[in-house]
TrEMBL record, chain B:
The chain crosses the membrane at residues 12-34, 76-97, 109-129, 159-181, 213-230, 265-287. Residues 72-286 form the ABC transmembrane type-1 domain. It is found in: Cell membrane. Pfam families: BPD_transp_1 (PF00528). CDD domains: TM_PBP2 (cd06261). This is Sugar ABC transporter permease. Belongs to the binding-protein-dependent transport system permease family. Keywords: Cell membrane, Membrane, Transmembrane, Transmembrane helix, Transport. It comes from Paenibacillus oenotherae. Coiled coil: none annotated. It is a multi-pass membrane protein.
Length: 277, 299
């Protein structure tokens, strides 16, 4: 009886998960497939999954006519800079909170959640005014600055969980040997949590790469646009070229998905595993 | 013990560690929000330079504007329906993943993929899949005989809201799934065995053991996702732009249109301030509930 019920429950679970997996992965597979279809097939056979005459036509147009490579470089510059600055500031802050202000840990968590509360659209208005005022409108530097507003609170939050796992004893030993606080942090604590920090860095990079609203508001020339807004500008064309949009979408999403799958085990559970409690 | 205390007591140097982060929070979060609050009492315009202080006039004009209430109602409906859907799909997927003996990692990886999608790609790919001319889903529905004509998911007033909600569930369910799954995996197996020996039904075990263990995680996820969905501008804006006929007009889009469409940044600031006040109230209630649950868990 018990065996039979378990078997039934497992079968239902497998069927359910298979359906969900199909729904979850279909859009990715479909845009990849569409990006290789010929223009005729794109509209003519909307149900065929494998392109009959695979073509690189759209990729060629996106990179060589629309100069999407410039936007890709912009995005890499912005995302890397935002990630580097965020990680340095957040690692210091998370370590500082855990080691020197342990009592405020819970309060800090709530404060960080509160910063998450601020609607991006609420920040967008003052940012558009302030960034213009300091002459950074339509520049990648301005964009990097605004990205810190969402990446740092989140990174601090995740890293507090990591630094809690560093035993005080090993730091104490180094202190006895005369190392100062910054050296203890850099030489002892940081290496212990390094794998976690790499994961947070990758996650920060993905979020910066995917960001849309601030770029929409702050950047107005095609040559300065990061990929998200450059891709959006394709949707405003008078005659929509779905093929180009598909090829550009694939170029934008592949780094995201690949990086995300690499770090999924570190980040995905981390939200609730300890960083919050 | 003494040595530990010495390490902890030197809070002054500890301040240097958190100072840069505090600076960022002050300069990039607190200061902009205060300036937004200030703009909300002025005639701040996107292009015109002169600014006049006008007290509560912006707030009055918003609160007497029927469009505001349409957007507010849409926002609430969109948040509640989306979050319920995300929770149901994510929670059931986590339960299923937790019980299967094989392929757990593979299914988890496949199911998590929507989470990595940039919002602009979510919009473009679903608009392509649901496209009313050569989209996959409208065509396959005709092909299998489910509908006579190609369904216009984004133009049909009866469908557009639910279409956007479905896309949001597709995108948000994995976050629930993964976090609930990691909470489920921390439940000790002995508790279920003990319950079985005591003659508890599987529903009773589910209610008293499973749900009790994951409710704090779910509560926290509900807080975070409520905020995210309620605040979310991009997803709906990129899928529908708020249309057709304002059927998917939410507060953030309403604020954006007022600020960048009508160029009235002062009024737009006031809308976003109201948005924030509303969210603060919702979060306050959530935190009360979470505190109660956490205390019960500790007992």
């Amino acid at each position: 009886m018990g065996m039979k019920r378990r078997w039934l429950g497992n079968s239902v679970s497998y069927i359910y998960l298979t359906i969900l997996a199909a729904v979850a992965t279909f859009p990715l597979l479909w845009i990849i497939s569409s990006s290789f279809k010929s223009p005729g097939e794109m509209v003519g056979s909307p149900l065929s999954f494998f392109p009959k005459e695979p073509t690189l036509l759209y990729y060629d147009r996106v990179l060589n006519v629309l100069n999407f490579d410039v936007n890709i470089v912009n995005s890499i510059i912005v995302a890397l800079s935002a990630t580097f600055i965020s990680i340095v500031i957040s690692a210091l802050a998370a370590y500082g909170i855990v080691r020197f202000f342990p009592r405020v840990g819970k309060v800090m968590t709530r404060v960080l959640i509160t910063t998450y509360l601020f609607p991006p659209i609420l920040l967008a208005i003052p940012y558009s005014i302030l960034i213009t005022k300091v002459q950074l409108a339509n520049s990648l530097v301005g964009l990097v600055i605004t990205y810190l507003s969402f990446s740092i609170p989140y990174a601090v939050w995740l890293m507090i969980g990591f630094f809690r796992t560093v035993p005080l004893e090993i730091e104490e030993a180094a202190r006895v040997d005369g190392a100062n606080k910054l050296m203890v942090f850099y030489r002892i604590a940081l290496p212990v949590v390094a794998p976690g920090i790499v994961a947070v860095a990758v996650y920060t990079f993905i979020n910066a790469w995917n960001e849309f609203l601030f770029s929409l508001i702050l950047i107005n020339s095609t040559g300065k646009m990061p990929v998200s807004v450059a891709l959006y500008s394709l949707t405003g064309a008078e005659i929509l070229d779905w093929g180009e949009m598909m090829a550009a979408s694939v170029l934008v999403i592949l780094p995201s998905v690949i990086f995300f799958l690499i770090i999924q085990n570190k980040i995905a559970g981390g939200l609730t595993q300890g960083s919050v409690k | 013990m003494k040595r530990y205390r010495r390490l902890l007591q030197t809070n002054a140097t500890g301040m240097y560690f958190i100072l840069p982060a505090i600076l960022v929070v002050v300069l990039l979060l607190i200061y902009p929000i205060l300036s937004s609050l200030y703009f909300s009492f002025t005639t701040k315009h996107l292009i015109r330079p002169q600014v006049k202080f006008i007290g509560f006039e912006n707030y009055i004009s918003i609160l007497t504007n029927p469009d505001f209430y349409v957007a507010f109602a849409n926002s609430i409906k969109w948040t509640i329906v989306s979050i319920t859907g995300q929770l149901l799909v994510g929670f059931t997927a986590a339960l299923a993943l937790n019980r299967i003996p094989k392929l757990k990692g593979l299914y988890r990886t496949l199911l998590i993929i929507p989470w990595a999608f940039p919002v602009i790609v979510i919009a473009i790919s679903w608009k392509w899949i649901l496209n009313g001319v050569s989209g996959f889903i409208p065509n396959i529905l005709v092909n299998i005989g489910a509908t006579d004509e190609l369904v216009q998911f984004f133009a049909n007033p009866d469908l557009v809201f639910w279409t956007v909600v479905a896309v949001n569930i597709w995108f948000g369910a994995p976050l629930f799934m993964v976090n609930v799954l990691s909470a489920l995996q921390t439940i000790p197996a002995e508790q279920y065995e003990a319950a079985q020996i005591d003659g508890a039904s599987s529903f009773q075990s589910f209610w008293h053991i499973t749900l009790r263990h994951v409710r704090v995680v779910i509560g926290l996820l509900l807080v975070l996702r409520t905020i995210w969905i309620f605040n979310n501008f991009e997803l709906v804006y990129l899928l529908t732009g708020g249309g057709p006929a304002d059927l998917t007009m939410t507060l953030p889009i309403f604020a954006y249109n007022t600020g960048w469409g009508l160029k009235q940044l002062g009024v737009a600031s006031a809308i976003t301030v109201l948005l924030l006040i509303f969210l603060l109230c919702v979060c306050f209630l959530y935190f009360k509930l979470l505190d109660k649950w956490e205390k019960e868990d500790e007992m």
